[in-house]
Design brief:
By secondary structure, the chain is an alpha/beta fold. 56% of the residues lie in helices and 7% in strands. It has a five-stranded parallel beta sheet, sandwiched between helices. The longest helix is centred in the C-terminal third of the chain and has 30 residues, at 297-326. It binds tryptophan. Residues 7-11, 40, 42, 45, 135, 138-139, 147, 149, 153 line the site of tryptophan (TRP).
């Protein structure tokens, strides 16, 4: 029996940040020892947003790979590959498109939220609209059963499993596998401005590659409790970004809960907690920064090429199983046809 496959991916639209680290990157470092892990640079998916500016996507591919290696993803244990270079993924998408309705895509909560945010009006590009189906291909092509992602990706996994069940039932096969999300304790990291989610597009995230000065500046600009004016005032910890980050990154939960109690009672200043958080984040990101500096661009390129070569083989194998389940392995069945038709 082969190992169970873990599969995940990131859009290369910018450098990765602390939200990615707690939401998914840390899990991948853990999972790579036990699972057969594939990590996809989702450039094709990123193009659904950036088709007018493809250079931005291209330029970030190697950046994202450096982030992977910097956090401890080991290319000998995890297969890192580039989505656009695996053509079988597009073919699978064509077959899955028949199994998903327009209204189901409209009901996908992630698509719904993005549609509202983007304000396309009636001019919704089909590519954007269908990206959940292409994500079904990403997951199923590798028979991914474990998908380490942030909470925002749950609707995509649900969509995947619907297609898997429909495909297997319709074509009377077991060839596709259902997937389960692998969530972490911090499902969603708030932005430094207190907005719901840290994101590169909102420019409210601390990047893994930020310099010590920038990290400090961002920590000291974090949203706390606007009514906590004097050190002696009681302060709120809910919605206080510094505490949310301490919860996510400070190793000692007991220390944090006693600091919270003190803050709520009054007598603990914002500067003290910010300085503590700054130290924690500096310690966390320093080894990553050093690792990143030691990486050579040509090696990163070769890692992608090698990983993609392996990924192509696996995806092609699944594609041929899918085609033969549908019955369109036409040429393979040449002799059978010539005999019976
Ligand atoms: N949609 C994911 C994101 O925006 C990226 C992604 C593409 C992905 N294909 C995937 C994640 C397959 C998990 C599995 O971050």
């Amino acid at each position: 029996m082969g190992k169970i496959v873990a599969l995940t991916g990131d859009r290369p639209t910018g450098k990765l940040h602390l939200g990615h680290l707690v939401g998914s990157l840390k899990s991948r470092v853990e999972l790579q020892d036990t699972y057969d892990q594939y990590i996809m640079i989702a450039d094709t998916q990123a193009l659904t947003d950036y088709f007018e500016n493809p250079q931005r996507v291209v330029d970030n591919i190697i950046e994202v790979v450096s982030d992977y290696l910097a956090v401890g993803i080991d290319p000998n244990l995890s297969t890192i590959f580039v989505q656009s270079q695996v053509p079988a993924l597009c073919e699978l998408t064509m077959y899955y498109m028949n199994l998903v309705t327009v209204s189901r895509l409209e009901r996908n909560p992630t698509v719904k939220a993005e549609l509202a945010q983007k304000d396309f009006g009636k001019a919704v590009p089909v590519g954007f609209f269908c990206y959940p189906i292409s994500q079904v291909s990403d997951i199923t092509a590798f028979k991914g059963e474990i998908v380490p992602v942030g909470e925002d990706q749950l609707p995509m996994i649900e969509q995947t499993n619907e297609v898997v069940r429909k495909f297997n039932r319709l074509y009377n096969t077991q060839c596709l596998k259902e997937a389960t999300a692998y969530l972490t304790k911090t499902k969603r990291l708030v932005g430094i401005d207190g907005k719901a989610k840290a994101s590169k597009s909102l420019n409210n995230a601390i990047f893994l590659s930020d310099s010590p000065e920038v990290i400090k500046e961002k920590v000291y600009s974090m949203f706390t409790d606007p009514n906590h004016l004097k050190v002696s005032d009681p302060g709120k910890v809910e919605g206080n970004v510094v505490f949310e980050y301490l919860d996510a990154f400070h190793p000692d939960a007991e220390e944090i809960s006693s600091l919270k109690a003190k803050y709520q009672k009054g007598g603990l200043g914002d500067t003290t907690i910010k300085s503590l958080l700054n130290n924690v984040l500096q310690d966390l990101l320093l080894p990553m920064r050093e690792k990143r500096i030691s990486l050579k661009k040509e090696d990163l390129f070769d890692i992608c090429i090698e990983g993609t070569r392996k990924a192509r083989g696996v995806a092609e194998q699944t594609l041929s199983e899918v085609k033969s389940s549908i019955g369109i392995d036409f040429f393979e069945k040449r002799d059978f046809y010539l005999k019976n038709h």
